[in-house]
Amino acid sequence: MLRRDRQIRAQINQLADAILVAVSYYLAYQFRTNPMIASWFGLDIVPADTFAKAEWLILPLMPAAALILESQNFYNHPPLAPRRVVLWPLFKGCLITSICMVLAIFVFHLTMSRSVTAFFGVISFGLIYAKEEVLRMALKSKFGQKQYKRRFILVGSANELDKMCHDLEGKKDDSIAIVAQFDVGQPLLNLVEMLHEHAVNGVILSARHTYFEQVENIIKACELEGVEVWLLADFFTTHISRTTLDELFGRPLLVFSSAPETSWQSLVKLGLDIIGALVLLILSSPVFAIVALMIKLSSKGPVFFKQERSGLNGAPFTLYKFRTMITNAEQFKAELAAMNEMTGPVFKVTNDPRVTPVGKFLRKYSLDELPQLWNVLRGEMSLVGPRPLPVDEVKRFNDLAHRRRLSVKPGLTCLWQISGRNQISDFKDWVRLDLEYIDNWSLWLDLKILFKTIPAVFFGTGAK
């Protein structure tokens, strides 16, 4: 199924799910305020008029639920995918939506029974899954199959045809039916006859090892017949990049990218960065005052440490930290080079003699990193992402592949932070974890890293 078809299907499902979420919210209140149902569960009877005081919550809940489900890749599965592929992301999406609902109740001091959220989670899960089952039944019907399944002819060289068949069989796309194959070495008239004979919906054309003149003639023939052509534009072999088709000033454009592309998830991530950094700065303001006083009273020098770090695509920015070392620490760095515990361009020492007593405490519990929330708020960093390295260390990269860790914004925490950073001494392992994060990025992965960071900071594990 083409991306445009998947997007249309996803948008329709998002609209339907948003409506079902609103219905679930209403039913949850009706169930909770029903005396008979309350007695079944041994709950106190809730007055029916409490719904009017919190009914406005439906408005933000509808789009939020759709976005959360999208972040769990709920809308990426094929329409006839195995049920397990549908159930797990749906369960996670409904659970996160219910948690967000609880947080909204707490933040806005709503007089709402907490059991309403439990009813809401169960009902929304049931209704959305029932919708998926209805769609599955409709698509399996004769009418659904006629509307859903499309007939295609594969066109390419003999070797390419075998590979295309193998790839299509591996994907198991129920929306595509291959009815015939055509070798580009045959006369073009034979293809035209096949178009008439099989009454196909389209042609899938591979042009990797084919002359473009032949490709052009095939496209023109299909154009006259009114038959759609899908040109497999895999002219170049890439190992990491994902290829997407776009347009620039009306001209078709192939985009090769090895970093996460712009999506709803990335927009939600940006919103979480801004809101999260702002909230954390406000909540940690007393800690800022206490730490600043501790640094001032314990050693001479400024409270904050500023250093040029490499940000997105290597662009330098000024990183802020609480000062944990003596003021002339950089002058002694060359003398400590022999104590470096990291291979590669990075400098790490466990018992660095330049660190002050207060600095050791701040580093153990990562309190020295708090000022970087300002960098997040300014858009130079993210809450989750590869840790930013000093500009001079990035310049010393001896493997250009290591620079791909710069393809996303640096972050306050990352996989390296929660994977036993005190046990990682090879810079290649550090980069491997960063690239693993980039290649598998999702909003859910960011949330898991954030949750795992909390105990790591609280217990001071892995700090140097």
Strand order of the largest sheet: 2-1-3-4
Give the low-pLDDT segments.
none
Number of helical elements = 18
Helix percentage range: 40-55%
Determine the structural class based on helices, strands and strand pairing: alpha/beta
Residue-averaged pLDDT, rounded?
83
Distance between the termini: 50 Å
Let me know the largest β-sheet: 4 strands, parallel
What is the number of beta strands? 10
Judging from the principal axes of the Cα atoms, what is the shape? flat
Structural account:
This protein has helices spanning 3-33, 35-40, 50-54, 58-71, 83-107, 115-140, 142-148, 158-171, 188-198, 212-225, 264-283, 285-298, 357-364, 372-377, 391-395, 415-418, 427-439, 443-458, and strands spanning 150-156, 176-183, 202-206, 228-232, 242-248, 251-257, 304-310, 316-322, 382-384, 411-413. The chain is α/β, with parallel strands linked by helices and 464 residues long. Strands 2-1-3-4 form a 4-stranded parallel sheet, with helices on both faces. A two-stranded antiparallel ribbon has the order 5-6. The longest helix has 31 residues, at 3-33. The model has no long low-confidence stretch (mean pLDDT 83).
